[in-house]
Specification:
alpha/beta, Rossmann fold, five-stranded parallel sheet, 42% helix
């Protein structure tokens, strides 16, 4: 018997959030219907989604949480199993806690099966090409999820696979994380349109999709990165275009953390040293001096501002005082990784 899930460190919902969620339930069927054309599509980056598809995935994620999560009265054993008979192969070039556990557990809740394929489990990149791997796995599985180093690898998989591919992380994009982040923000604030999101840290894959998704939902984007650690220029330009299309401010860029945080409603950071960058640790920590999200920095944000971090975290990135505070949405954010990957898989298979 599965136990129902419980949030950890979940701040109380504002009245605006409660109203947004109440109205959202009423409109959810219409927004989820926008995913009817998503069947068979790859999920590679947030900018490939239409605004309607992004809205649909967020609302489907909330529907699954209502069905299988902490507030549900449905027995997980007898709950709907729309992915019965389906399977996902999970290619992991990089280790993970949240991605693996959320996908395996979420697929089980939906009635399907997942297969973990680590670096020593298959021939990928050793005796077998990405193209051949894609073609073989497509014969066995309904979906292919890939957590890789190079974005070119996930593009190669999606080019040759005959089943939908999910980018579970590459060096350029992390779209599943953005869905979880946006869901956490809507749970807290309600409608996030007009809210200001500040990024403090490395201009990396997590920032890339969060910028894109935030702009699509009408959020103002402010980014602080040290010199030499700026976000990808092409993705910045796409974000600016989306900001203009959705009536938000132009993207604000700075090298001073406090300048980005001032007037923000959300402060986000991530690891400064990703997997594969361990030899750069000392240099990076030195160059990110002044970027720790602590009480002083959070104090420069708007009253009621919240904090996000996709985990795993290190104390040089964020102080315990902030990380474990009522301002932190880190653990609800982490839980949302399951509801959102469930939504993506179901939508790709047309099993809503």
């Amino acid at each position: 018997m599965f136990s129902t899930l419980r949030y950890v460190n979940q701040p109380a919902l504002s009245s605006a959030a409660k109203n947004f969620m109440k109205n959202g339930v009423a409109k959810r069927g219409m927004s989820i219907a926008a995913l009817n054309g998503f069947e068979g599509k790859h999920f590679i980056s947030i900018d490939q989604l239409s605004n309607e598809e992004l809205r649909g995935l967020l609302d489907l994620s909330k529907k699954y949480r209502d069905t299988y999560g902490k507030a549900s009265t449905v027995d997980p054993i007898t709950a709907p199993k729309p992915l019965t008979g389906q399977s996902v192969s999970m290619i992991f070039q990089k280790r993970s806690t949240r991605t693996r556990v959320s996908t395996e557990t979420g697929m089980t809740l939906l009635g399907g099966q997942s297969l973990f394929l680590g670096p020593s489990d298959i021939q990928l990149g050793v005796n077998e090409s990405m193209r051949d791997t894609a073609l073989v796995l497509s014969r066995f599985n309904s979906l292919v999820l890939a957590r890789v180093f190079s974005h070119n690898d996930v593009l190669e998989l999606s080019k040759h696979a005959t089943v939908p591919v999910i980018n579970a992380l590459s060096d350029l994009h992390h779209p599943l994380q953005t869905l979880a982040d946006l869901m956490a923000l809507e749970d807290h604030f309600g409608d996030v349109k007009g809210k200001t999101l500040a990024w403090v840290g490395d201009g990396n894959n997590v920032l890339h999709d969060l910028m894109l998704g935030g702009a699509k939902l009408g959020m103002n984007i402010r980014v602080a990165t040290p010199e030499g650690y700026e976000a990808n220029e092409g993705i910045l330009e796409t974000t600016k275009k989306l900001a203009a299309e959705n009536g938000t401010e132009d993207v604000f860029l700075t090298t001073v953390a406090s300048e980005a945080v001032k007037g923000s409603d959300v402060v986000v950071t991530d690891t400064w040293v990703s997997m594969g960058q361990e030899e750069e640790y000392e240099q990076r920590v030195k160059e990110f001096d002044g970027y720790q999200v602590n009480a002083n920095l959070m104090g420069q944000a708007n009253p009621g501002a919240v904090f996000l971090h996709c985990l795993p975290r290190h104390r040089e990135e964020v102080s315990d005082e902030v990380f474990y505070s009522p301002q932190s949405l880190v653990f609800p954010e982490a839980e949302n990784r399951m509801w959102t990957v469930m939504a993506v898989m179901a939508a790709q298979l047309g099993k809503l």
